[in-house]
């Protein structure tokens, strides 16, 4: 698995988790969805992604988008 795949999977899990938490715990968890979406948007423009840095430190192999 590459960093690109790991970041996309992590973002997907976080969005689904935030939707579940919004429905069953508190409507304020919608801000987690907003945060993940904004982070994905800014990383598409800048190439900077904190999650990619963490996955790289964990030894996940490089991909095309986040090097």
Would you spell out the secondary-structure blueprint of this structure?
Blueprint: H1 3-24, H2 30-46, H3 50-57
Helix pairs in contact: 1-2, 1-3
Overall description:
With 67 residues, the chain is mainly α. It is elongated, with a radius of gyration of 13 Å. It is built from 3 helices and no strands.
Summarize the structure.
This protein has helices at residues 3-24, 30-46, 50-57. The protein contains three helices and no strands. The radius of gyration is 13 Å and the shape is elongated.
Helix-strand pattern: HHH
Distance between the termini: 14 Å
Kindly name the structural category: mainly alpha
Shape: elongated
For the biggest sheet, the summary is: none
Nearest-integer average pLDDT: 92
**What is the number of helices?**
3
Q: What is the chains' assembly state?
A: single chain
The amount of helix comes to over 70%
* Low-confidence residue ranges: none
Please give the number of β-strands: 0
* Residue fraction in strands: under 5%
Rg over alpha carbons: 13 Å
Keywords:
67 residues, mainly alpha
């Amino acid at each position: 698995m590459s960093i690109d795949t790991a970041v996309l999977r992590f973002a997907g899990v976080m969005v689904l988790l935030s939707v579940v938490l919004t429905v069953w715990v508190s409507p304020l968890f919608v801000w987690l969805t907003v945060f993940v979406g904004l982070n994905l948007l800014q990383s598409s423009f800048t190439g900077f992604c904190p999650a990619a840095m963490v996955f790289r430190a964990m030894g996940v192999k490089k991909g095309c988008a986040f090097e």
